[in-house]
């Protein structure tokens, strides 16, 4: 029987920090709270991460790596670029809930923690380049109309705004009806539909039908 890989103390700290931050907000949780929940001394935790920014920076590096892998995963099994994009959006919705404290407080994180802010800005530029490549594949595959460059750049920027602030708008605009599972993904597809070619519309319908059950299961 294969042994389970032992989780390091550093990773246990991060996992517990994420749980507590999600439940209470990062600014309401100290390293002593985390240490107490883990049953370790504050000195032990401090040895690995000596302040809140060190913990947040480690969490954000983990977040960045996780999503970078998802942006880069385009399978070679015949899936279209729309399939890849749809899987990416579904992962983004799950990802946002996994790290919801960060997504809800991204502006405060950026203002309060210089090292986190620096990496966040680098990541934003990386995602901008990656999204541009995704759109170029849409056009080259004949799924989106070859519109003016500025129109597609503006569309990509709008999508980035939605992704970045989706959870925040749910908190600020609770009276609106679009809070069901998968709504962020649906909103983004709705933005793309007017730009789709006939081939793109057919591929879009095929993609939605193919992954409809998975979309409903987003937590």
From TrEMBL:
<dbReference type="Pfam" id="PF00440">
    <property type="entry name" value="TetR_N"/>
</dbReference>
<keyword id="KW-0238">DNA-binding</keyword>
<protein>
    <submittedName>
        <fullName>TetR/AcrR family transcriptional regulator</fullName>
    </submittedName>
</protein>
<dbReference type="Pfam" id="PF13972">
    <property type="entry name" value="TetR"/>
</dbReference>
<dbReference type="InterPro" id="IPR050624">
    <property type="entry name" value="HTH-type_Tx_Regulator"/>
</dbReference>
<dbReference type="InterPro" id="IPR001647">
    <property type="entry name" value="HTH_TetR"/>
</dbReference>
<feature type="domain" description="HTH tetR-type">
    <location>
        <begin position="7"/>
        <end position="67"/>
    </location>
</feature>
<dbReference type="InterPro" id="IPR009057">
    <property type="entry name" value="Homeodomain-like_sf"/>
</dbReference>
<feature type="DNA-binding region" description="H-T-H motif">
    <location>
        <begin position="30"/>
        <end position="49"/>
    </location>
</feature>
<dbReference type="InterPro" id="IPR025722">
    <property type="entry name" value="TetR"/>
</dbReference>
